[in-house]
Amino acid sequence: MRPVGRLVPIALAALLSACGGKATHAHAVSPARPVPARACPDRAPSAKPDGSAEALAGARVGRVCVVGASERVRSTASFAVRTKKGAALDLGAVHDDLRDLLRLPDVDDAAVYATREADGRLTVVYALEELPVVAAVAFEGVHAFTREELDRAPLARGDRYRPWVGRTLVDTLRRAYADHGYCTAKVDLSVQPAGPKAVRVRVAADEGSRCRFGAITFRGNAKLTTADLARAAGVSQGVEWDEALLERAPLLLQELLYDRGMIQGSVSVERGDVAADATIPVAFVVHEGDVFTLRKLALSGVPDALQRKLAPALKSKPKRVFARDLLKQDMEAVRKALQDQNPGKDVDLEPETTVDEPSKSIDVVLKAQVR
Amino acid sequence: MPAVRPLALAFAIAAGSAVVSTGVARAGGDAIVLDRVVARVDEQTILQSDLLARARPALAQGKERRAVLRQVLDQMINEVLIAKDAARLSITVNDDEVQSAIAKIVAQNGINPEKLDDVLRSEGMTRKSYEAEVKRELLQGKWLASKLGSKPRPTDPRELDAFVGKERDAALAVLRQGAFIDVRQ
Known about the structure:
The complex is a heterodimer. Chain A is built from 9 helices and 12 strands. By secondary structure, chain A is an alpha/beta fold. Chain A folds into 4 domains: 4-130, membrane protein fhac (Ubiquitin-like (UB roll)), CATH 3.10.20; 133-206, Ubiquitin-like (UB roll) (Roll); 212-287, membrane protein fhac (Ubiquitin-like (UB roll), Roll), CATH 3.10.20.310; 293-370, membrane protein fhac (Ubiquitin-like (UB roll), Roll). In chain A, the strands form 4 sheets. Chain A has a 3-stranded mixed beta sheet with strand order 1-3-2, covered by helices on one side. The longest helix of chain A is centred in the last third of the chain and has 18 residues, at 324-341. In chain A, 24% of the residues are buried. Chain B is an alpha+beta fold. Chain B has one domain (39-183): Orthogonal Bundle (Triger factor/SurA peptide-binding fold). Chain B has 7 helices and 4 strands. Chain B has a 4-stranded mixed beta sheet with strand order 1-4-2-3. In chain B, helix 2 (48-60) crosses helix 3 and helix 3 (65-88) crosses helix 6. The longest helix of chain B has 24 residues, at 65-88. The A-B interface holds A 42-49, 51-53, 55-56, 67-68, 89, 91, 94-95, 98-99, 102, 109-115, 124-125, 127-129, 132, 161-164, 166-167, 170-171, 189-193, 199 and B 1-5, 7-8, 10-13, 19, 23-37, 40, 42-43, 45, 47, 49-50, 178-180, 182, 184. Strand 2 (107-116) of chain A pairs antiparallel with strand 2 of chain B.
């Protein structure tokens, strides 16, 4: 787009001239007979169904008009248009003009026309259509969310109505319902005219009832019992559906795997379809992998005397199955002992682990730093 | 004032269906449309000039204009949807990949690289438009690969083609379902 600033002086000069501004030439000029300026059309012209734009390329432009939309938008658009009176028609420039016009925040649609006048010159018309303003947004049947939550919607009174934003609002609300357990909720959006260039947006929801967790099953587990997994997952059949619970469950199961030495294990979730009784079955697929043992546990940055004192109390024991929960407890004990010895100082404690794949073992060094 | 589209039509949001509206373009007079919006895909627009440029090689072969434009527009809408989804998935194609792909195509087809511009011109394309097309194809290839992921694939070439086509259509159907598509006749 051509910078507006460069165009302003020209426009100002033209305005001064039109208003009878002071002549800059010293010599007297006899007043020319006024030629009535042909007015631009007030709307987009009707077009030939089979007209070829290429046939007009290079023809002289006699007039450039911007029609449609509000005066403010037309004024902005006029600055954006680079096709000028007197120039040869450049279809590439017209294409760029149109792209620029469509980037203007209030423009919904635009088209460019050309009509050949009696003198052979072209009248080029840029026709704009403005986005309507949202006169009101009404939420009907929405009970699961507060007014404050709905006010954060990406569409509000006074905004320009963009269809894709309306769609985003519907999708956002559908997702929010699903997250809150309303798995059968339906959301519809309708837009009605509300006066000239304004629309009323209505969001209607049929929330349905909250869904519940259906059967919870586990697959792929050989070393861990289903009872252990069910206890660790933190969800059970009959509980109200909650996306947060479903997201947390595989993390909790993963922790269980780590606590039982299965450091390469993983858990994925398969969510079933909503059943007629508004329950959703969930299956956790467990990949346990091998069980790793703790080969060595060492402390670094901890005074020898303190190490000797701590050693019997540490719960992580070499040659036993690696357990992350025990290691976390040991780290807490070491940190507390160092803190007691160094009051007022900061204690950093980081575990450095080395996995030995062939022997399925792990070496752990707890590195302490007192600052 | 330009013709105002019927609001109910212009703003209808029907899941999974493209909206067809007339936009500001008015037919039946003496003016010639230099350019206009032919489709909107969410916040992006497809212009008539872009559509005609893309359809030029097929039109030059004398194919039926209306069918060609409809087919090319459909393809362009898919490309916009794929490009948006690819951006969301952080899938990109850089210039080196484009040039490398063009070099391979040139070699495979026994074209003298210095004559490539002439060959493209004879097919109604420019070097720039060809590079853009290759880039689009590479991006679509990467996007499709990400959609296929580690799904088991048939080994028979014909079955593989059918499988890939089916997966592509299914992925595109999902994208179309989630987009606002406004085709302006």
